[in-house]
Design a protein that fits this description.
5 strands; about 10% strand; two-stranded antiparallel ribbon; 3-stranded antiparallel sheet; 6 helices; 2 domains
Length: about 180
């Protein structure tokens, strides 16, 4: 007899049964690529530029835009119970991957390499120890009143919005001078 799975544990990919050519379930990342492809609207993307194709669209541009809005409005994870002071600011000195903060025992924050590029031997570091390491050089920084006003004005003119920070890929980097 087959195993029973609680309905809340069934993922979208399991529910719709989208499978690869080899019969495996399609992963979320692959589904995101499929849903972001303008080919279904009668257009195609070549080297980062979208062109009008000669093929017949199978969905409207309006529906495609609605799907894109839904995909981009979603965020990872829920609200954090605790602020992670250095979230998104650090890179691993050994392999260059991002450093992420993680709460342990609902009390302690440790920062560690994400190991995105493979095996990295860098050990985790506690938030107090990281603060000490980063605090010493930062204590020597001085911001004049004039510079503080300039920073404040710049923030008022163009406030930081994480959702608007562009993602940089190999194509974008290759085009830089």
């Amino acid at each position: 007899m087959g195993e029973s799975v609680h309905p809340s544990r069934v993922t979208v990919r399991q529910r719709i049964g989208l499978r690869s050519r080899k019969g495996a379930l399609v992963y979320k990342a692959a589904m995101a690529i499929i849903l972001a492809n303008p080919i279904y609207t009668g257009e195609f993307r070549w080297r980062g530029v979208v062109y009008q194709g000669k093929h017949k669209p199978i969905i409207s541009r309006e529906l495609f835009n609605q799907v894109q809005a839904l995909l981009h409005d979603r965020h990872r994870g829920g609200p954090s119970k605790r602020d992670i002071a250095f979230r998104g600011l650090l890179k691993c000195g050994q392999c260059g991957c991002a450093i992420c903060g993680e709460v342990k025992k609902e009390r302690y924050v440790y920062y560690h390499c994400t190991h995105s590029k493979g095996d990295c031997r860098q050990a985790a570091i506690s938030e107090p120890n990281l603060s000490k390491l980063l605090g010493a050089p930062l204590k020597r920084l001085r911001v004049t009143q004039e510079r503080a006003e300039w920073i404040l004005q710049a923030l008022k003119e163009q406030p930081y919005r994480p959702a608007e920070v562009p993602r940089v890929g190999p194509a974008a980097v290759a085009g830089r001078t």
